[in-house]
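[Meeting: bench + compute handoff]

Bench side (C.D.) handed over the final construct sequence. Compute side (W.E.) agreed to return the predicted structure before the next meeting so the bench team could plan truncations. Sequence as handed over:
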Amino acid sequence: MQRSSDGSNLKSRLKNLPRAKLELFAASLAEQLEAAGEQAPALAVIGVACRFPGKADSLTAYSQLLSEGGEPFASVADPARVALGVPGVGGCFLDGIDAFDAEFFGITPREAASMDPQQRIMLELVWEALEDAGHGQPSARRNVGVFLGLAATEFQHLLREQAPETLDAYFGTGSYASVIAGRISYLLDLAGPSMVIDTACSSSLVALHQACLALRAGQCEVAVAGGINLLLTPEPDTAFRKAGMLADDGRCKTFDSAADGYVRAEGAGVVVLKPLEQALADGDPIRMVIRGSAVNQDGRSQGLTAPNGVAQEQLIRAALHDAQLAPAEIDYVEAHGTGTALGDPIEVHALGRVFAADRPAGAPLQIGSVKTVIGHAEAAAGIAGVIKVLAALEADTLFPHRHLVQPSPHIRWASLPLQVTTSAQAWSRSGRPRRAGVSSFGFSGTNAHVIVEEAPLPSERPPLAQERPRHLLALSAKSRPALLELVGRYRERLAQGEEPLADLCYTANVGRNHFRWRTAQPAATREELAQQLAGLGAEALHEAGIAAPKLAWLFSGQGSQYVGMGQALYESQPLFRQALEECDAQLAEELGVALPALLWGEQGEWLNNTRYTQPALFALEYALGRLWQSWGVEPDALLGHSVGEYAAAVLSGVFSLADGARLIAARGRLMAERCGPGAMVALLAEEGQVQGLLANLPISWAATNGERNQVLSGASEAIDELVARAEQAGVEWRRLEVSHAFHSDLMEPMLAEFLALAQGIQYQAPRLRFIS
């Protein structure tokens, strides 16, 4: 519909609408305007893993390569590629694409031989990224989506050409594109959406965009997104060279007057995403934030593979709209920047049209392209740019753009608010968050742009009055050599960084899987731990049993309490403190005293009064159980003695913490109010000998705790007489610190009222085995 500048055409159309339809139109328009103003939920990058040319097989190595530069171009394939049957072609290659620990993933050697190296590498990278995110445990990975970009399936052709008669049942699952995501989801038991996306050079950034959409739609709780590109056959190289796309000297000279094409490159990278709000609540390690993204198509341009500047401009504006940001709020753009005489000017002028508005004087938009360092990784190019920006944010540095000697004369540099980052520049935190855009354009015409932002500053954790004196680092692997290699990596990590020892140990112990070959090293400082790992030889590594031993938790009863119990844990362990404070809130009204004051404070003298002893022990044992579970220690069964049964019942799910607190508080109060005082004693003797000492004494047999450990309960006078007889018989005895004769007939006065309360509690089948 054509409309005039003052909207009169629309006005005339509205005048003729019936009132009901007009009201409906107005309501619909209001909803659309409201929705258009809403900011899409931000997403956190909580894990990363990568492999890029120049031996950049980690974020640290990649950051170093981007900072120092290098020449990863090679004109001849390495011997490992020759062994795979890969012909020698020019490009920037990854090292060791033939290496794969098939046994680690439970894959047979025969099946592994038919697997595309792209499948192998991505399987390993997804595993690494999930562990980097602290989601290494299987229980943390269930509702995870997998979104991967992939364009080349050249391994299929290698298998067909070399020995077609050897093609076996694993050929399809080993070489078809779809399986690269499906196998990851299958082997790691990830139940979220799982897909491979091919839009040529923009594949990995489109995959990232799709992952963002899935998370915002609630289709998964966590998403893995990225892409991979390997150069395994010469045919694409030949075709691109004939099309005039490739540089003669093996360098991407992006934005330079000598730009004559790009150099092909291999690469792979993945990031782990989670809604920012949830990541903050869960305490995840937030590396970066994704604010918005967009995908579009060139449509008709000068040719099928020719870029469209108008489409690129519309794409970036759409991504900014999705992020609800103005162009002036972006500091840097990681350009697609392949280094072609046609593509570079079109892209730079599109950036100029978007970012010219309201740009502060003296603050041009910085631009650069990672392709001048590692080459054009095609299907993995977008994720290479995203991880570059992540590395830059963490290094507080914009990395230098390489190979720009004489700026392209086809670009109107003087009139554009842009500057190519040809040297390293400080990129420090300031009054507003640091932000960047990342572009990736496919020669298929599909374009993607993502807006990223620095991670929020970690919230200030309340200072701990006391840190635990020592920490435990538990490391494991599926073989002795692999464990030795892991130990070496942790030695390097300790030498390189300043990560708090508590955080390093916690992530290793809880965020990683635990396998059969293990070592555990206690230490008080980073230096001590590094020294211990340096002296660790193969003989110190142990192989665990095939079947994990069964673990039971026994919660003790009254008599085990003492003033000061739990204080060090309360002051040094946030989760223990939180659990104890949960109990305090449930018990406050009934007790009239705060648990810390009762356990180690000014009311400590009340601790042996059963009204307070029982709730205090219950709270301490519940908090201890929660703490062990947070460390990854889960019991196969729980049982308790007396008071301990109530904590065991709550942790196993028999009833809620609130109901457990009500029961234990009433139990202690009723015993204090309804039952007279009494005493208990433990006799370290066999049952028969104790039976002889009990003759004619009104005493109850409270418990048999062992072959030579009998507990008796009754009135104080009767217990005094039993102790006298025991001494005369030479039997060792120990009085229990109790105020009443628990587990005896003297408890009957409280039973009726307690039973009435217990009948009002809601009981559940236990989630964990509970032995009453």
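W.E. noted at the follow-up: The chain is about 40% helix and 15% strand. C.D. will use this when planning the next construct.
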